[in-house]
Write a structure and sequence with these properties.
This is SRPBCC family protein. It holds the Pfam family Polyketide_cyc2. It comes from Saccharopolyspora elongata. The protein is α+β, with helices and mostly antiparallel strands. It has one domain: Alpha-D-Glucose-1,6-Bisphosphate, Chain A, domain 4. Strand 6 and strand 7 form a beta hairpin. Helix 1 packs across helix 3. The chain is globular and about 45 Å long.
C-alpha cells in the first residue's frame, strides 16, 4: 500500500471547513477537481450535506473518478473510499479537522491506495502533490468564506 499525508491550517473554524468538505458542489471552487459530475454521482444531498454512502464523481481534465463517503463525524472527520478510479484502487482517505492552537482549524488529509505494477513511483509523487494542493485549497477557501461571513 502506498500512502500520502497532507496538512494545512485554516484560519476558519472547523464548522466552516466542514461545510465545504461535506458539500461536493463546493469542491470545484477550492480543490484540484474541475467539476462535479452529477450524472455519475448518487445520493447527493440537495442542501449540501452529503450523507454516508453518497458517491461523488469528479472530473479532472478528461478523467472522472468517484468516491464513496464511508464516515462522517460532524466537524471532525470525513472518510471516503474509491467508488471508481482508473489510476488507483483500494483507496481510502481520512480528513481530520481539529481546532488549531490560537484559533482556526488544522486539516490532516491522509490516505492509502494501490496502483498497477510499475506506476507506484509516479502515483506517489502525483498523490503527494495533488493532495497537498487539496488541503491548501480547502484551508484558503475556508478562510475566505469566514472573512465573507464572520458569523459563520
Amino acid at each position: 500500500m502506498l500512502r500520502y499525508d497532507a496538512t494545512a491550517t485554516a484560519t476558519a473554524s472547523p464548522a466552516v471547513v466542514w461545510r465545504l468538505l461535506v458539500d461536493a458542489r463546493t469542491w470545484p471552487t477550492w480543490s484540484t477537481v474541475d467539476s462535479l459530475v452529477t450524472e455519475r454521482s448518487s445520493g447527493l444531498d440537495p442542501d449540501g450535506r452529503d450523507p454516508v454512502g453518497a458517491v461523488r464523481a469528479f472530473r479532472t481534465g478528461r478523467t472522472v473518478t468517484g468516491e464513496r463517503l464511508t464516515g462522517l463525524v460532524e466537524e471532525k472527520q470525513l472518510t471516503y473510499e474509491d467508488a471508481f478510479n482508473s489510476a488507483i484502487h483500494d483507496y481510502r482517505a481520512v480528513i481530520d479537522l481539529t481546532p488549531a492552537p490560537g484559533g482556526g482549524t488544522a486539516i490532516h488529509w491522509h490516505g492509502t491506495y494501490s496502483t498497477r505494477w510499475g506506476m507506484g513511483w509516479l502515483m506517489k509523487r502525483v498523490m503527494r502533490r495533488v493532495m497537498q494542493q487539496m488541503a491548501d485549497g480547502l484551508a484558503s477557501h475556508a478562510a475566505e468564506q469566514a472573512r465573507q461571513d464572520p458569523a459563520g
